[in-house]
Here is the input.
Amino acid sequence: MAVQGIDFANLSLMDALDLAILIEDEAQERYEDFAAQMEQHRTPEAAKFFRYMVENEAKHARELTARRIHRFGDAPRTVTRAMIFDVEAPDYDAARAFMSPRKAMEAALAAELKAHAFFVSSLPTLKDPEVRALFEDLRDEELEHQQLVQAELYKLRPETGLSDDDFVDEPTAQ
Amino acid sequence: MSATGTCEYQAKDYKSDLKPIWCPGCGDFSVVQGIYRALAAVGRPPHEIAFVSGIGCSSRIPGYTTAYGFNSVHGRALPIAQGIKLANPDLLVLAAGGDGDGFSIGGGHIAHLIRRNMDITYIVMDNQIYGLTKGQLSPTSQKGRITCTSRYGSLEEPVNPLLYVLAYGAGFVAQASPTDLAGMASTIEAAIRYPGFAFVNIQSPCVTYGEEAQQIKGLKAISETLDSLGHNPADRLAAMDLAQQYGEKLHLGVFYRNPEPPPTYGDLVKERQAALSKDALPKERILDLFIKK
Here is the structure.
């Protein structure tokens, strides 16, 4: 379940903008967590990529916040973080110790695909034309984010044919 | 737009500055998120919460919250939590640990908290392995499981945590998993709100020593919500029937909630104190008698 307690049919533009901002916030926080995990596990390249994603998500959140303030000022928010569950944030189990930059990028790409699917599946339930237009923008932005990650993937050297499992020691008794 | 209601506290208010050192991908990352969300929904301030754990990967969890925490002794989270609750009944007391901590070395304590109906929520992160000590058999490891301490496969039947607590008469028994964060948060919230001993078994995968079938993908393949089965959580015998499928099916939600919860041990202690204090000597008089002796 990606969201809980949100009536999409009656979603107002202000609530839709707040929802979009919180989705970006959640993703930013998750990438921060992932970057910290990678730094703790001496995986600097993956950490660097996750930090890059933190900046991207923060940038999108700032843009949406500017739109929200422009239209609705500081009107109280009714949508809360308690209502959203991993919409654009990569799943916790997507991270792995010593993950390669490629694996990190693939995790981010999967998260962008998930977010795109969320906006696509929400569109038919929306009634307000302005909210529909916003969701269409957000859907298209998710496609742009996917292209952004894919561009990073193309910059990588070709795969060596080795998998992460090749570097894992068998469990041993202490 | 319908909101579920505004909370005074948000999940982030329960998140400490300490960064978890679990293996990336560990199921416990989702569990701690579920706990933050449940605590925010319950709305008790962090300084009114005590969180006690034993020893193990999952037992690090109190440190990742802003509640008072005690990462205590192996298998002894429950007696310590009980002591805290009796000393300060106003605290919301949570206990947590792994399946080894809870059902091996600490297994004997569970029955006594259940029979006393201590108002404590006990969260077990069940990964069917001793992860912190590098992958030995744990009490919930499946028969035939190959580990570094069972090279030719385990000869032992696993403990069934759900049946274990149901058989002792626990008033609230539930199961959750990181495969469903929303469900996990609401299950933990329901456990905290239950007036008495509440047990939540969370199938939390170990990414380093866990088997493929126990990872998120494998768990998703065998999971179904108890709601979708039309299970009535007031029916204890039906709960026991479903609990027997532990290890084969991953049933998510509340197995059993006693519709008429008995008084908690804390309530009974208060009653006893009130009854005895009618004829009790004033404190000063007791001291005088003691000094004279």
Notes: Chain A is about 60% helix and 0% strand.
